[in-house]
Target: CreA protein
Amino acid sequence: MLKRGFIAGIAMALGCTLVKAELVGEVDTAFRWLGKDDRVVIEAYDDPKVQGVTCYVSRARTGGIKGTVGLAEDRAEASIACRQVAESLHFLEKLPRQEDVFTERMSILFKRLHVVRVVDSKRNSLIYLTYSDKLIEGSPQNSISAVPVPHKKSIPVK
Model:
């Protein structure tokens, strides 16, 4: 526990964000004779700069032998729902107006899933957008979710 906190502290001091998805659940969508089945996974991401906000992302994961060893390319579609999961929100630092909060590899090379946080100061809300990109051709498939910030609290923006 102490070691994990030390590593996280160093990463934050260096300006890095160590965010790891937590698998919440999964459902099989297609049977594969060899390797894992194709499935839809639900992962939770806690916002590293806003304590009390968790984003739930569902997306397809390719199975088979390639998927089992990490060589398959997952589909570009994803869905997101972000919620306030604590009694109150706590901002660890000032937030940029737009920031790539989480990224995760979707293929061995060049394809990534992104979750971007956008601050809507006028409406006192945090908007989260998920999309995927590829080195040559990204995907217009996207999904958004918004978390309202209580009126008594304002969002600290850089």
In short: The mean pLDDT is 79. The beta strands are 22-30, 38-46, 50-51, 53-61, 78-84, 90-91, 98-105, 111-120, 125-134, 142-148.
